[in-house]
Amino acid sequence: MFDIGFWELGLIALLSLVIVGPQRLPDAIRTTLSWWRKAKQTASDVGNKLESELGLEELNSEVQQLKQPLHSPKVRPRASRSHLVSTEPQHNAQVQPSKEST
Q1: Residue 4 placed within a domain
Q2: Is residue 42 part of a domain?
Q3: In sequence order, what DSSP letters do the residues of 17-39 get, joined into one string?
């Protein structure tokens, strides 16, 4: 998530030891982890609340139901041939008005 490597973690641990001191370091770690857990729990609660308020589960299920017939190999749309224009000259001549009749 933060892309922190081994050396970065070592540097953080060394700085923490120097700044906080060896006696208070375990309490500082516990406090930091407690804050981290509370922040994660709050973020999770907010996400769950938003999901329930917006009805995302219902929308996702409806979308899946609508996608099923599209992916089914049994259902294939039939092309309407009424809108097709013939490319043969004899058929196009009947559609175009002749210049002689005007």
Answers
A1: no
A2: yes
A3: HHHH-TTTHHHHHHHHHHHHHHH
pTM of this prediction? 0.45
pLDDT tens digits, the chain, 102 residues: what are they?
A: 568 899 998 998 899 889 989 899 999 999 999 999 999 999 999 988 988 887 777 888 888 888 877 666 655 555 555 555 555 555 555 555 556 555
Q: Which domain holds residue 58?
A: 24-70
How far, in Å, are 58, 68, 69, 93 from residue 65 at the CA level?
A: 11, 5, 8, 48
Q: Is residue 66 part of a domain?
A: yes
Give residue 52's identity as a one-letter amino acid code: S
The total domain count for the chain is: 1
Residue 82 lies inside a defined structural domain of this protein: no
Under 8 Å CB-to-CB from 85, ≥6 apart: which residues? 92, 95
